[in-house]
Amino acid sequence: MSIPTPLSTVLATALAATLLTGVSALGGSAVAVASPSERGGDRDHRCVRQFDKAVQTYVRATDDRDARGFNALLHRDVTAVLPGGYTLIGASEVAGFIDGFFARNDWTQTLKVRHTAVADCETASVLFDSVYTDGDGAVPLAIVITWTYEHEQWKVLVDQNTVADG
Question: Which helix (H) or strand (E) segment is 130 a member of?
């Protein structure tokens, strides 16, 4: 088994978002962290619901290899870090990688939500346990996606993929 090429590892990054039917359906939990003035408010509940929907969209786009839908979730200043430290900076660079990655059909990826958090309807994160498999074998990954809330939409700001020990 070998570590995937930068192209196949980015797919692992992109395919990292797992949630076919929602965070709670996969056993993950969304945690809202509100400021004192917002605690108990509808704003936090709305943000968590919107975040869950954004994560579902991310996973669906990944599962369907829908590069256009996936790339629409990217913040203009997104950074992707693949196993081995290969980095992609900016929406156009990440989107270019995703276009090529999603065009391939020689890989699979499992995604399981371990944890999610939403803070003050500004920042959110999701941690996935993942296994990326291609012709070189299977690679276990821990994938963290950091989101920012901008113009009433959750956008992917950081997509970090780390090889996990078995």
Answer: strand 123-134
Instruction: Report which DSSP code applies to 55.
Output: H
Q: Which domain holds residue 90?
A: 6-163
Cβ contact 87:80 at 8 Å = yes
pLDDT, tens digit, 9 for 90 and up, residues 27-59: 444 444 444 344 456 777 889 999 999 999 988
- Please give the structure tokens belonging to residue 11: 């797919």
Structural domain total, the chain? 1
CATH of the domain at 72: 3.10.450.50
Beta strands in 11-60 (DSSP E): 32-33
pTM for the predicted model, two decimal places: 0.75
Is the separation of the CB atoms in 141 and 131 below 8 Å? Answer: yes
Q: Which residues of the chain have pLDDT under 70?
A: 1-41, 166
